[in-house]
Amino acid sequence: MAVVHRPGEGEHIGGPSAVTIKATGEDTARSLYLGEAVAQPGFAGPPLHRHRHLHDMYVLEGVLTVRLGEDTLELEAGSFACVPPGTVHTFSNASEEPVRFLNFNTPAGWEKYMRDLGELLASRYSHARGDREGRLTLRLRGRLIDHAPCERARGPLVARRRSSV
After folding, report:
1. Residue 64 class from Cβ within 10 Å (0-12 exposed, 13-18 middle, 19+ buried)?
2. What's the pLDDT score for residue 56?
3. Least confident of 76-85, 106-115, 123-132
């Protein structure tokens, strides 16, 4: 069955800085996740991290600050970034205006992480930590949530992270 989400439609997660899930593995024969993200001015973004999957971003409006390895780029509307598996990266909004961008992850599965993160942000959690394998483990209302697709980056590259990212 075809899936269509018009502007503003989809599964909304978050608050002022938020994501609207547009496509999931269920929608795409497990081929990709697509979210439309809005990062408000000053959004610090996630810590430097790497994925075991492909992560792409396409900027629709505003300027998205993207850190790829040691390079920090200001991506304006119409810019595309393809982040290969294992590449240390992060993104933020250092500008004075909101940034709207598409976030693609292949293969699908990222939607589970986004839903769990949304639930975490919407409630009070009792524990969050990273283990030696780079898994993010969250204890949410007594339920253990374990995510392996994202590893927090460590080492000298992290120490050089600019404060604006």
Report:
1. buried
2. 95
3. 123-132
CA distance 118 to 41: 20
Structural contact between residues 24 and 108, judged by C-beta atoms closer than 8 angstroms:
yes
- From 96, 65, 89, 93, select the one nearest 79 (Cα to Cα): 65
Contact indicator for 46, 14 with CB cutoff of 8 Å: no
Average pLDDT, integer, range 94-108: 94
Question: 58: which residues sit within 8 A by CB, 6+ positions away?
Answer: 79, 80, 81, 101, 102, 104
**Domains of the chain, residue spans:** 11-159
Residue 6 — φ and ψ, nearest 5°? Answer: -80, 170
Q: Domain 11-159 belongs to what topology? A: Jelly Rolls (2.60.120)
Structure confidence at residue 133 (pLDDT): 39
Q: Are 81 and 66 in contact (CB under 8 A)?
A: yes
* Structure-token pair, residue 162: 């600019």
